[in-house]
């Protein structure tokens, strides 16, 4: 058995949900994803931060919804039939994130990821956990816990 075979057998596998925001493809750990839903009516919340679209009623539970484009400070875009809300659990809070489209559920070896040391992207590096290097594309793996600061988490708690 070669050293490369041993590494491949011991390589940890990441299970991800991938989605698109504009031209960028992102991934989040599937274990954090509760469900993926089509767009529903969102109720605005007065004086909420700009990136918080409002709240939805998901089977009797009030869930705050964040526009991922606004959170990542990207250009706004009209929602269409591919737009989805990814419902995730972050720091014991259930939150919805609006994304342009969900692309796939995938499994990638941890060894195909790298830290974003010299990454040139529009997305703030503080949200990025690592970069998945796939055949002909890059997948930005997000750190959901870093998407909200302490004050923003408090605002979400009040909304929910």
Q: How many distinct folded domains?
A: 1
Number of helices: 3
CATH topology: OB fold (Dihydrolipoamide Acetyltransferase, E2P)
Question: Could you give a short account of the major beta sheet?
Answer: 6 strands, mixed
In percent terms, what proportion of residues is strand? over 45%
Instruction: Give the structural class.
Output: mainly beta
The CATH architecture comes to Beta Barrel
CATH fourth-tier homologous superfamily: CheA-289, Domain 4
First and last CA, distance = 54 Å
Helix content: 10-25%
Structure description:
The chain has 160 residues and is mostly beta strands. The protein has a single domain, classed as CheA-289, Domain 4 (OB fold (Dihydrolipoamide Acetyltransferase, E2P)). Helices cover 14% and strands 46% of the residues. The protein has three helices and eleven strands, in the order αβββββαββββββα. Strands 8-1-2-11-10-9 form a six-stranded mixed beta sheet, with no helix packed on it. β6 and β7 form a beta hairpin. The protein is globular and about 45 Å long. The N terminus is likely disordered.
């Amino acid at each position: 058995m070669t050293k490369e075979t041993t590494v491949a057998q011991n390589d940890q596998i990441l299970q991800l949900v991938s989605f698109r925001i504009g031209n960028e493809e992102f991934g989040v750990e599937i274990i954090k994803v509760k469900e993926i839903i089509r767009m529903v009516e969102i109720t605005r919340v007065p004086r909420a931060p700009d990136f918080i679209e409002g709240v939805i009623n998901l089977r009797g539970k009030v869930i705050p919804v964040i526009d991922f484009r606004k959170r990542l400070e990207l250009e706004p875009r009209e929602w269409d039939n591919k737009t989805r809300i990814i419902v995730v659990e972050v720091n014991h809070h259930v939150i919805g994130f609006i994304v342009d489209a969900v692309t796939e559920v995938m499994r990638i070896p941890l060894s195909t990821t790298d830290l974003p040391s010299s990454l040139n992207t529009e997305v703030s590096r503080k949200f990025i956990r690592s970069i998945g290097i796939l055949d002909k594309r890059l997948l930005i793996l997000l750190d959901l816990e870093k998407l909200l600061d302490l004050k923003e988490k408090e605002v979400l708690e009040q909304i929910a």
